[in-house]
Amino acid sequence: MSQFLDYEKSLACIHCGLCLSSCPTYLETGNENDSPRGRIYLMRAMQDGRLPVGDTAVRHIDLCLGCRACEAVCPSGVQYGELLESTREHVETHYQRSPFQKFLRRIAIEKVFPFPERMELALRPTGTMKKLARFMPKFAREALSLIPENVSSRPVPSFSPATRTKRGAVGLVRGCVMSVMFGETNAATVALLNRAGYDVVTPDTQVCCGALYAHGGNLKRARECARANVRAFEGVNAIVINAAGCGSTLKEYGHLLGDAGGKAFGAKVKDITEILSPGDFASARPEHRKVTYHDACHLAHAQRITRQPRDLVRAVAGKNFIELPESDVCCGSAGSYNLTEPEMAERLQRRKTEHLLKTGADLVVTTNPGCMLQIQAGLKKAGRNIQVMHLADYLYEKIM
Ligand code: SF4
Ligand code: SF4
Asked: 323, 305, 326: which is closest to 314 by C-alpha?
C-alpha cells in the first residue's frame, strides 16, 4: 500500500464530533460515514489496508462536498481539505469507475471546463437542448437547469488603468467559468478595481487555477496549472480573484507545489472583497430591495472571509440587508459536485432555497459562479423570481 495520507495530520482528529453539525452531508444523511470524523476514519482504514478502495469507502468519500466547513470549526486544527485531496488522488488511481463517471470526470469536466474556448463551444447548443430537456434523463435535465438563459462571455483587456488617484497595480485571474458565463462580472470587477485606484493587468498566458483537477483527485494536472500561473504572474505584486473556489486553490499553491514559488504566489492572492473598502461606496444609490448574502464555502471556510463581503453589502443595502439562516451551509454546487453527485446536490439546493425564501429577500448576493448557478436554478425550480448577483455586479450597479 503506497503512502497517500499524511498520517500525522489525520491523527490530529480527536474524535470530538464538534464538526458534525457543520457538515452538510451529515446534516442530510445522519450517517457517521458521511461526516468529517467518519471520513477521516475511512481514510485511515484505507491507508492501513483495513478497508479496500471499493464501492463502500469510495461512496462516502465521493459524497464529501470538499466544502471545508468542518475545517473551519475544528478545535484541533485538522487540515481536512489536504487529507481529502490526497485521498481522492489515491481513489482515482486505484478505483475502477463506471464508464459514465469516467467520461464525466476525465472528459466533460477536465477537458472542457478549464478551457474557455471549449466551454463556449459546448454551451452553444444549450437553447436547443433546453427545448428537448423533457426527453432527457434526470441528471441531464439537472445539468441543463444550471445554465442560465443569458451567459455573457466578454474578454478582459490585458491592461486597464486606474481611474482615480493611483494606489497600486494588481493582476487579475479571470477564471474559466467566470470568463465564459460571467464576462460582465469580470468587467465590473475591473471597473471597481480601477475606481479604487488600481491598474489591472490580466496576463494572457494564465490558465485554469487547477481547482477542478485538485478536487477531482488529479493533483498532477493541478500542479501543472499552478506552475503555469506562477510564471504568468511573475513580477505582479498582488493577484485578485472574484471567484471563491479559484481563490482558495490559488492561495494554497504553496501546499500544492511544495516550493517557495508557490508559497510566494499564494501570499499575493486576494479575494476582491479583501481589496475593496466599504467606505468607497458611501455615495452608492439607495437600496429599496431586501438583500441577503450567501457565503460561498471556499470564501467562508477555506479562506475564512465572512466579514468583508457582509460589510460591503451592508455599505450599500443598509437596513435592507437580511442575514440568511445557514448562510454558510453549502448550496450543493461545490465545483463540479452538482454534476457528479446530482442527488445530494439537489437536496442541498432545496435546503438553501427554503432558507432563502424564508428571508423574504428580493436579491441574493454571493461571490462564486458555481453558487450563483446553483442558487439561480433552485429558485427557478421553486417558481420564484428572486435575483441572484455576484457581489461585484451588485456594487457596480449601485455605484457606476
Ligand atoms: S472537529 Fe476536528 S477533531 Fe473533532 S471530530 Fe471533527 S475533525 Fe475530528
Ligand atoms: S468538507 Fe464539507 S461535506 Fe466534506 S466532511 Fe467536511 S463539512 Fe462535510
From this structure: 323
